[in-house]
């Protein structure tokens, strides 16, 4: 007896090859047959006539851990409802383990307040066990965060690591990789990694190369200094031959847009030289950015407490203000999205807030950071649509949400605005591919299935073939549409009809079943 049969759908297998009209059978959580089934017995049969059947989407850049929603809402409705069956967390330098000291966990507080959270793990394996104990809606793979390790070793101290500390970092990294981390992430733009020495980064990347694990990097700059930032990581890839993915690749700020052709050309040259480089991109021109990163680096050197101290002292505050004014970025349309401390500011632009306060938008930033203790995330529409299309269609790209999973009905419980990518990334991307005719359906599906699986090293997911895990999405391409907006992000897309995780129905006929079929995935 088969567990599940999907009849008469167009099977798009995740490799990029053309779809084929046929059937698919599942038993014990695995795909057991692909092809026309004549006589069979199955517990569940889905008629997929007129629909597409493809591998479950793999979100290779996800923040459900650092936004803490993996614990608050482990079912991750907004991921399932957009067809995502596996998320990869521990991104941008911040993972939730290992915790060589309790300081290490503070790497996530730029995204989410840590007050009241319960942390009963220390090692990477202990974290995975805690995640596993919950009613997990999706599969979870985690990287180990470089910032988490570094901060766990030296706290807020501003300096390069000593050779003994580098050895400790290597030991903790190796332990985490042995416990199933799929690689490491770096967040070079953030306060606690900014002072990493080249040799520190080199030693971490070498460990990854030895075990053939992925390095996922958030570049030191995504604006005026992006070429230097790219060169930095390409040198690292060249020196260590590590497999490297650049996270949420984009070029921010209209002043910097002329750098785009050179940026892509340097990346392509590196690939042509044989470096294993790739990047992920989310399909929106608006970013969801931590507010403090708009300040000059020295202003937040040493972390949050140092920043707050500087903002409170007239001399330093004035220096920061002057630097912001001199940078001549137009910040007036930047909008407050997420903050626990000042909910009345949510949804308002810096221009509005500045007018209320009778100050400039630059000064308003300082006031907001001070009053919220720097836990503020903003929306900033600052990348070009033309560049976005070039990145989405680029042979080196994959599509990822860079968002977090939320419950379907959360809008009643929060004033916070999340980025619509948390609800609609995949539908936004696939409908863009369809409407603008920038990719075939098969090419587009490859960028959310087979390609991220290969880059992450997931051998048993991301493709439809015999013996692969039965993580599947069945959707209506004609009616597929992203409904999540910046004003009302808490809306799941139209057109995703069924989502199957490990052979079980997580979404049936467009409705969440409430089942918790996700597992923690460990690299071996
Ligand atoms: Zn990042």
TrEMBL record:
InterPro entries per the UniProt record, alphabetical: Amidohydro_3, D-aminoacylase_insert_dom_sf, Metal-dep_hydrolase_composite, Metal_Hydrolase, Metallo-dep_Hydrolases_sf
Domain Amidohydrolase: 45-504
Top-level division of the source organism's lineage: Bacteria
GO cellular component: cytosol
GO molecular function: hydrolase activity, acting on carbon-nitrogen (but not peptide) bonds, in cyclic amides; hydrolase activity, acting on carbon-nitrogen (but not peptide) bonds, in linear amides
Name the record gives this protein: Amidohydrolase 3 domain-containing protein
Source species taxonomy: Bacteria, Candidatus Doudnaibacteriota
């Amino acid at each position: 007896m088969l567990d599940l049969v999907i009849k008469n759908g167009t099977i798009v297998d995740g490799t990029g090859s053309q779809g084929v009209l046929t059937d698919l059978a599942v038993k014990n959580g695995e795909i057991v047959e692909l092809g026309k089934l004549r006589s069979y017995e199955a517990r569940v049969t889905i008629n997929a006539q007129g629909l597409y059947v493809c591998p479950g989407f793999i979100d290779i850049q996800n923040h459900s851990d650092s936004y803490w929603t993996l614990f608050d809402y482990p079912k991750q409705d907004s991921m399932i409802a957009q067809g995502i069956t596996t998320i990869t967390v521990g991104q941008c330098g911040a993972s939730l383990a290992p915790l060589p000291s309790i300081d290490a966990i503070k790497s996530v507080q730029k995204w989410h307040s840590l007050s009241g959270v319960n942390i009963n793990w220390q090692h990477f394996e202990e974290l995975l066990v805690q995640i596993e104990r919950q009613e997990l809606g999706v599969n979870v793979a985690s990287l180990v965060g470089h910032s988490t390790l570094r901060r766990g070793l030296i706290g807020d101290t501003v300096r390069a690591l000593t050779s003994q500390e580098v050895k400790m970092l290597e030991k903790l990294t190796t332990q985490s990789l042995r416990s199933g981390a799929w690689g490491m992430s770096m967040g070079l733009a953030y306060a606690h990694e900014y002072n990493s020495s080249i040799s520190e980064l080199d030693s971490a990347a070498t460990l990854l190369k030895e075990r053939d694990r992925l390095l996922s990097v958030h570049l030191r700059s995504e604006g005026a200094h992006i070429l230097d930032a790219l060169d930095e990581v390409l040198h690292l890839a060249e020196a260590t031959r590590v497999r490297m993915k650049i996270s949420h690749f984009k070029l921010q700020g209209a002043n910097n847009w002329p750098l785009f052709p050179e940026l892509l050309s340097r990346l392509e040259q590196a690939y042509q030289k044989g470096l294993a480089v790739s990047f992920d991109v989310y399909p929106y021109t608006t970013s969801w950015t931590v507010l403090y990163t708009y300040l000059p680096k020295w202003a937040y050197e040493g972390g949050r407490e140092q920043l707050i101290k500087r903002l409170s002292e007239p001399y330093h505050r004035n220096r920061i203000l002057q630097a912001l004014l001199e940078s001549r970025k137009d910040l007036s349309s930047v909008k407050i999205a997420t903050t626990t401390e000042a909910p009345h500011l949510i949804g308002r632009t810096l221009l509005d807030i500045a007018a209320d306060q009778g100050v400039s938008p630059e000064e308003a930033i300082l006031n907001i950071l001070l009053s919220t203790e720097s836990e503020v995330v903003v929306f900033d529409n600052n990348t070009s649509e033309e560049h976005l299309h070039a990145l989405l269609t680029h042979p080196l790209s994959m599509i990822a949400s860079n968002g977090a999973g939320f419950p379907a009905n959360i809008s009643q419980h929060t004033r916070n605005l999340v980025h619509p990518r948390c609800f609609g990334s995949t539908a936004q991307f696939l409908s863009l591919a369809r409407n603008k005719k920038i990719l075939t359906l098969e090419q587009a599906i490859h960028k959310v299935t087979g390609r991220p699986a290969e880059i992450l090293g997931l051998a048993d997911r991301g493709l439809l073939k015999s013996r692969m895990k039965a993580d599947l999405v069945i959707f209506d391409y004609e009616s597929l549409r992203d409904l999540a907006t910046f004003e009302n992000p808490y809306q799941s897309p139209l057109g995703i009809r069924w989502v199957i995780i490990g052979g079980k129905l997580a979404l049936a006929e467009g409705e969440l079943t409430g089942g918790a079929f996700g597992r923690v995935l460990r690299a071996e």
